[in-house]
Amino acid sequence: MQDITRRQFLALAAGALAAFAVPTTAEAMAVKFRKCPTITQNGVTYRLYKRYAIVQRTPNRKSVTIPNTVKAGGKAYTVTAIWDRTFSKCPKTQRVILKACNLETIEDPAIFRGKISVTAYDRATYAWLKRGGVKVTLHK
Fold first, then answer.
1. In 3D, which of 108, 100, 106, 107 has the Cα closest to residue 124?
2. CATH code for residues 24-138
3. Does the pLDDT of residue 1 top 50, yes or no?
4. Is residue 81 within 8 Å of 103, Cβ to Cβ?
């Protein structure tokens, strides 16, 4: 086994401690957006942040549609993210229609497990999900 210096050991120990102290992406998002207002439209609950909407909760029904934008208080908010466990909490959901063309992240692993089929309205979103192994079709 290779000998390491005290400085290297302390750097490794600090890195290990930092890894355990840093919250997961979903936890970090929840803390950052905790005080942001929410709005529910067609059963889907969104967190509103600046000019963006984040899908937080969906209804437990067979098919769910995520729009490109939502309106609240006379402002339009672009849907850019889907939080962790958004669809995992909905066992009836079999199909998600993604009209959102500006998605930056989907934190919910249920989309990637193959239980849910997705219809994308945007070629870039379609390609991104396809590379991730999602059962996705492109709306024509």
1. 100
2. 3.80.10.10
3. no
4. yes
Helix, strand, coil shares, percent, the chain, to 5:
25, 35, 40
From CA 48, how far away is CA 46, in angstroms rounded? 6
Q: State which amino acid sits at residue 65.
A: T
Query: Contact, 48 vs 55, CB < 8 A?
Result: no
For the chain, domain boundaries? 24-138
Contact criterion met (CB below 8 Å) for 108 and 84: yes
For range 9-35, the mean pLDDT: 59
8 Å CB contact between 99 and 119: no
Half-sphere exposure of 116 (CA within 13 A, CB side): 28
What pLDDT, in 10s, does the model give residues 58-80?
999 999 999 999 999 999 999 99
Which pTM does this prediction carry?
A: 0.74
